[in-house]
Every structure is written in structure tokens, then in C-alpha cells.
Design goal:
Elements: H1 3-17, H2 19-51, E1 63-71, E2 77-82, H3 84-150
Antiparallel strand pairs: 1-2
Amino acid sequence: MSKKNESVLAGFKAFLMRGNVVDLAVAVVIGAAFTNIVNSVVKGIISPLVGAFGTKNLDVYSSCLKAPCGVDAKGDPTGVNIMWGSVLNATLTFLITAAVVYFLMVLPMAKYLARMEERRKAREGVQETMEITELEVLKEIRDNLVAQRTGSGPAGVQSAQGPGYGQAPGYGRGRDGSI
């Protein structure tokens, strides 16, 4: 195999193994199976409930725009018939699908992601507090070291014990008294 063919196949393999392509394929398969469930709910539950007020088959609801509506002897439709029952059936199927997807998938996932984000922010807040506290401690140590070198106490106040904290005069200084 040539290098060009290998690179094309490697690129195709990388494309297929990308997370979003695999996720999309899974979503299509699950969506197809889910459609059967929703259609069964509409035909088995919703349509009979609507049928309590009329017919069980929503597809038979229609309005005639131009009379006479019906079917002639040859089997061809006559008139202009608006099949609004089919649209109502499809709309109900869509609304049920959207409600199930939202309440069983989107809403729980949104709550889960919000909890994860809260935990992440809480961890970052603790880490930031620790960093700030650590920074303040280091600044304080630096200020105390500078104060020791200059012979004054913390924050520019002369220590009662001399140049250091309980250290003998001249500690840390060269023979000539320099730092």
C-alpha cells in the first residue's frame, strides 16, 4: 500500500473514531428505537383518549375545501380534502417525544452538570484561598526577613531584642558589619 492510501485510511479511521461521530451514530440508533415507543404511546393511549370525543384514528379527521370530497368509482380522490387529523397526530407525537426527551434526558443531565460545575468551582475557590493565604504568609516572611536585615522589627518597629528574633547582635553579618 502506498503512503497516500495509508494516510487516507488513517484519516478515515480518525474521522470514524472521533467522539462526536460515534455519539451521533448511537443517537440515531436510539432515536429510531425511541420513535417506535413514542408511536406506540400515541396510538395506544393518546389516540383512544381523543377517540373518546370522536374517532380513535386521528388520520380520518379532515375538512373539505372544495366539494364533493370523497373517492370516485375509479378510486381517485375528488374535491380538495385537508387532512388536519394527520397533522394533529404528528404534532402530538412530536410534543410527546420532546417532553420525554426533555424530562428524562435533558433536565437530569443539566442538573448533573450544574452539580459538577458547583463542585469544580468550590474546589477552585478552596485552592484559590489556599494560594492567597500562602502568598500572604510568604509576603509576611519576606517582610520579616527585610526587617531583620535593616535592624528593625516587623513593620518597621524596632525589636526589643535587637536586630533579630533573640539573636546576638551581628548575627548574619560579615566581619565589617555588612549584610
